[in-house]
Automatic annotation (TrEMBL):
Homodimer. Residues 80-110 form a coiled coil. Residues 1-68 form the HTH merR-type domain. It comes from Pseudooceanicola albus. This is HTH-type transcriptional regulator CueR.
Length: 135
């Protein structure tokens, strides 16, 4: 199958597939004319990459997941450890986003949203609002 077919079946853009090839995450075969030929095994790797990236795994973690997936003698504890590490990272990002949400909600609530040039949001972003500490 060619790259456009692989893109359609994996849900990844062709540009991303080329990038994954450039960094060695996949190695599609090459036809005599130089075109990539994606096997079912390579397509499975692309699907794994697509899903892992959606779940927040880094490229290096994806590399480890691919290696573990290819290893018939892998220990599931190794896969679980990677997933637990990623879960902790996702939870930390959620906490950061919740703090960001609260800060932004506060700024929006302070803004009058009228024709007056005074802007609590800009003052908050620049740290010039009364009692505002720049972060």
């Amino acid at each position: 199958m060619n790259i456009s077919d692989a893109a359609r079946h994996s849900g990844l853009p062709a540009k991303t597939i080329r990038y994954y090839e450039d960094i060695g995450l996949i190695t599609p075969e090459r036809r005599a004319n130089g075109y990539r030929d994606f096997s079912d095994q390579t397509l499975d790797r692309l699907r794994l990459l697509a899903q892992a990236r959606l779940m927040g795994f880094s490229l290096e973690e994806c590399r480890k997941l691919l290696a573990l997936n290819a290893d018939e003698h892998r220990a599931s504890r190794d896969v679980r450890a990677l997933a637990e590490q990623n879960l902790a990272s996702v939870r930390a990002k959620i906490t950061e986003l919740q703090a960001l949400e609260a800060r932004l909600e506060g700024l929006v609530a302070q803004c009058h949203g009228d024709d007056d040039p005074e802007c609590a949001i800009l003052d908050g972003l620049t740290g010039t609002a009364p009692g505002c500490a720049a972060r």
